[in-house]
Amino acid sequence: MATLPGLSDREVRDRQLAGETNNVKLPTSRSYARIFQENLFTFVNAVFFAISGVFILLRRPSDAVFVAVVIFSGVVIGIVQEIWAKQKLDEIALLSRPHATVIRNGKELNLDPNEIVLGDTLVLRPGDQVLVDGQIVGDGRVEIDESLLTGESDLIAKIAGKPVYSGSFCVSGSACYEAQKVGTETVAYQLTMGAREFRQVYTPLQAEINLIIRILLLLASFLWLLVGISFVIRSQTLNEVVQRAAVIAGLIPAGLILAITLSYAMGSIRMLGQNVLIQQTNAVESLSNVDVLCLDKTGTLTTNQIELQSIYPIGIDEKELRSRLGNFAASTQSGNRTSEAVLIACSGYAKPIHNEIPFSSARKWSAIEFAEQPGTYVMGAPEILMKSTVLDEEYLNSIDRQVNQGFRVVLFGHTPKSIESNALPPLTPLGILCFSDQLRPSARETLQGFVKAGITLKIISGDNPQTVAALAKQADFSDEIRVISGVELAQMDQAQFVQAARNYNVFGRITPQQKAQLVRSLRDCGYYVAMTGDGVNDVLSLKQANLGIAMESGSKATRSIADIVLLKDSFEALPHTFLEGQRIQNGIRDVVKLFMVRLSCVALLIFAIAIVSDSFPLLNKHSAIVTLIGVGIPTTFIPIWAQPGEPQKRSLVRSMLHFVVPATITITLVSLTVYLFYLASAALDLPPNVGLIGIEFNIPRTALVTLLVFCQLMLLPFLKPPTNAWTGGEPLSGDWRYTLVAVVLLFVYLLILFIPPLRVFFELSPLSLQDCFFLGLVTLEWGLILRLAWRTRFLDRCLGVDLE
Fold first, then answer.
1. Dihedral, CA atoms, 66, 72, 76, 79, nearest 10 degrees?
2. Confidence (pTM)
3. Is the domain of 609 the same as that of 514?
4. 612 within 8 A of 600, measured Cβ to Cβ
């Protein structure tokens, strides 16, 4: 590669002036204009703005301002959050942008891909991404993974004259390629112009919530239709119709998506503080679902700082062996950690090469044929190379002893023949090399963190299975280590393979294809699988996993397709990351429960009160204060205070039925009874022969609003029981913060109720202390009834199903 001159400075300038550059910009996020457009011009916002406009026409400016402030506050928060997300995406794109190694004037330069020009000669090494379209030049040979372009996982060998396409990756070998298409002409640009742009990717949890919102939107549309019909056929005023339309609009939980988005954003920020970079939106939720984590030993359990510990010559002087090893390591064009460790321990010189077969995880060996010497030198896994050679019992015992101590063992041999394919001819063994790879200092604590998070671990490595098992024992990986090798897996049928994937927890001498098959088999068994990796050999398995996790120091290929990147290779932060994912999901589920109780209660009260009393239960500001105090403010704390725990495998709707259904039915019945009681009391105070038309509905409505606020606030300690006295709907949490928030908000509501200007603004009627005390007792009685219903599973028995 060093003999290729590349372009001169003058040729580069000429091409830059001609516009033959790779200077194109792929969008990584939405524009600011699009963010404003998508947050402002929505159906729900249009409804609320229309209602606000009608309020102005009806000369009710306070209602108009209240509606506008509520909507605009949500819009502003959403815009600010998404602008922050856009800026983060742009930063991520800048940080993860690959660099190009270009030969110009006979020297290698590291450049930004935008600086590539047509005709440039680029260097391609293992893990590098092909940045522009071109063809191989010179004597190099590489194996390319084009699966991101074609979907096929087979590696494709490339030699001089063969084309390479942007978006593919070099897996093994090294070579140079000439840029023949740059900028908008490349395959990568044409394929990823739409794919790289920001997309609103909905997680499974978000998809279920969107379904709930669509159902509520249909319900609201149906109720709006009924209100419109009643306006036409009845003598209702326009003011009453608009009030009812505004309350019905409140059934659409626009704030729910905002609460979820903020939960994800806060989770991402907290994870970034732990050096965990979220690259895909759904990764946040995926974290909470993971129950199996597949680890690659190198770079995760170990530091990946390989050191040559000892050399055992076989039929050759040690000095001569070190010289040949040094020449081998210095001459290879596809170096790796092993060759680097050899070169440090054994000095050598780079010599002309006639042929090289680079190391690959599938072959487990590499070979070099020097131009000035006959024959080929081979270095690789002993169990693979021993198929072509014979070792004395003494050396076999030495290999077993070193392997069981956790050392990585490599066999070095020679054959007088040339190797033109993957088939090895008979070899003469020359030496045994033992390498050490130290455990990470925090390996034990990290593994215990996974156990605490309820995650099953499986170590999948290309190293000798006994070496992997020895290191796993040193890290206190498991009480029972069950080891299997790739050779054994290769002899199994599909059913046996799947069973082995489930039963074993340490896998050694695994090929990249087997690693991907193991991940796929675990997924087929119903597990939610995360995979960590750092090398190009991990690309296939990362793509098969539900969640791909890459190390920052890993190859560009793994970082580009991973959902999460561990900055500074912070493997020890991973258990905290899984716990953070569980926290986020649990917080979102709690938020949805409170929203659904309120929305369901209001919807049922609209139907029930219309049927019983031919009236409407709430005004616009009444609905707003119930939402604000009973749900809005509490749900800002829930995502922050949520605790991690075992993820729930059932759907969102199914998991919340046990809490939501009894709470909704009991609150609705109690609220309806109280409303009718105050309505009847108001009717009794009327003169004879006046009828229901003369009833003042605001006192019953105020009593109804007060009871709904009381009940919604009492749901907070039921949602997070501080003591066993509150358990029933949810398990004991021991967290008093939710209860304290409920007490503070109760005090806030009472201030609104008893301070005349605030009470008038929210159109509430004065209630006496006796009324408040009565409603408080009703709330306590309702709480006891609800707790009894939860603990006895009364509704479960009535419906004949298990709601939990």
1. 150
2. 0.64
3. no
4. no
